Amino acid sequence: MRGLLRSEWTKLWSVRFGAWCTAVYVLVVAALGWLAAAGTQTSPEPDLAVETALTGFGFGQLVLVVLGVLAITSEFGTRNALVTFTAVPRRTRLLVAKTAVVAAWVALLSAVLAVLCAVAAARLTAVPGGVSLGDPAVLRVLGLQVGAAILITVLAVAVGTVVRSSAGAVGLGTALVFFAPLLVALAPDWAARSAKAMPALRVGRDTFLAESTSWQVGTAVTAAWAVGLWLLGVALLERRDI
Amino acid sequence: MIELVGLTKAYRARVAVDDLTVTIEPGRVTGFLGPNGSGKTTTLRCVLGLTRPTSGTATVLGRPYRSLRHPMRRVGALIDPAARHPARTAHAHLRALAQTNGLPVDRVDEMIDLVGLESVAHERVGSFSLGMGQRLGIAAALLGDPDVLLLDEPVNGLDPEGIRWVRELLRDLADEGRTVLVSSHLMSEMEDTADHLVVLGRGRLLADMPMADLLDQHAAVRVRSPQGPLLAAALRRLGAVVELELDGALRVEGLGLDQVGDVAFAAGVRLHELTRITESLEAAYLELTGDAVEYRASGL
Predict the structure, then answer these.
(1) Do B71 and A4 count as a contact with CB atoms less than 8 A apart?
(2) Residue B69: count of CB within 10 angstroms of its CB
(3) Which of A3, A41, B96, B113 has the fewest CB atoms nearer than 10 Å to its CB?
(4) Considering only CA atoms, which of B64, B41, B68 is closest in space to residue A87?
(5) What GO molecular function annotations does the UniProt record carry, in alphabetical order (chain B) (predicted)?
């Protein structure tokens, strides 16, 4: 497995999209976070101030959808999959390694970005008693944000594995996490309730431009989608011809 | 060694490989021939576990390919020279492959030198020509120093120097006792390279025999005599097919060189020439696969 992880790491950094998606993600999250923190003069609670500074993650996660999808569709779209699965005929192991490498990279990036956003909130937003990074409420918000980013990435890898085409998978992935929850939230009551079952993007404890759910319910729903689709991806990958 | 037993792959509209049973032995170069669409590539994909057979089995070194833990150390394959991410450099492409099978990265540089891609090792492979892609594919196949090699059209797009290099490489690998299965449409090339032939037509096995036997089956004898008609009659009595050539010589099929000489002696016929004509592999192949060609150009 160590060799496989190394190989996937090599692959991620030897194509253009790895660096591009990373750069755009950092730029979107950091810039929007700084703007949101700078535009918020006061906040009653430290965790609320930090949550505002995390706004950039809302749009940033759309970049993660692209990153996760391309990690796998770049194999199929270029027929590189023929070489990959000849070298690694145990297909599930390959998908585990690929998912782990992309998710680990996203986890690291997101953790650093989340801390930067919290620092921005501490410096730019006035909060009674100040914002401390060691505050359990703040840590929970940051942890939830990193968790949401990882789940969206795994979901995207899964969608890419099922759909195989880059354009199709990016379209379906963004529809699933962004447009569907957004549209359904604008619809009548019964549809809005069903929006709670969609894997919506999250900013801190709340949903991003979608029907509001508690963080427990929202995280569980997204996790269920990510794991469910990933398992479907594994089943199809093992069954289908390359 | 590669063993196929009753291998069948049916797609919705057609049967690509039909009940194919054949064993590819080590220590020789086996040529894998057949018209377009005869099922060669599908067979190779089944061997490599990329395509799931409808029925039957394919094993390499006694095991199904998909159960191999580090397959590149046992089996090297080239099935599509275009199977590469265009943005990746040749070195990164091979490095990622080496890492999957726990192969040392030094091997990558060695193979790049071997196939002659040193000068473009750090260029993106998207700009590679077909021939350079073939060299990259061959490098990938040889990375793990495998016992079994499967190469689908490896000389397609190579320059004459490259074709000759591949021929000598395959010869050497087979002489070291490895199993080498190579498909090609270049018959003259195959004739110089392969020891043994497996021929497919419409997914079925048409021939599995030593190259020499196939050529012998399609050999003829050219005989010139001042008493041509007498000799022709004597030969026909023994069941030979005799044709008159433009220069008055006879072309005899169905009898060997020695037999024709004996017949002439027995008939008291003087001979001025007695030659064995071997047909090219191309002619023998076209005769063998004539009925099994699926895609044929129509005349203008």
Answers:
(1) no
(2) 12
(3) A41
(4) B68
(5) ATP binding
Tens digits of residue pLDDT in A65-74: 999 999 999 9
Give me the interface pTM, i.e. the ipTM.
0.89
Are B2 and B179 in contact by the 8 Å Cβ rule? The answer is yes
Residue among B85, B108, B153 with most chain A CBs within 10 A, to mutate: B85
For position B300, what pLDDT does the model report? 67
3-state helix, strand, coil in chain B (%, to 5): 40, 25, 35
CB A156 within 8 A of CB A65: yes
B233 touches chain A (CB under 8 A): no
Beta-bridged to residue B30, according to DSSP, are: B181, B196
pTM: 0.88
Q: Does B105 touch chain A (CB under 8 A)?
A: no
Written as six digits, the tokens of A183 are 């549209």
Average pLDDT over residues B137-146: 96
pLDDT range class, residue B220, cuts 50, 70, 90: confident
Residue B290, burial from CB neighbour count under 10 angstroms (0-12, 13-18, 19+):
exposed
Report all structural domains of chain B as residue ranges with CATH numbers, in order of start: 2-213 (3.40.50.300), 220-277 (3.30.70.100)
Q: Could you give the count of Cα atoms lying within 13 Å of B199 in the half-sphere of its Cβ?
A: 24
Q: What is the pLDDT of residues A186-199, one digit of tens each?
A: 777 777 777 788 88
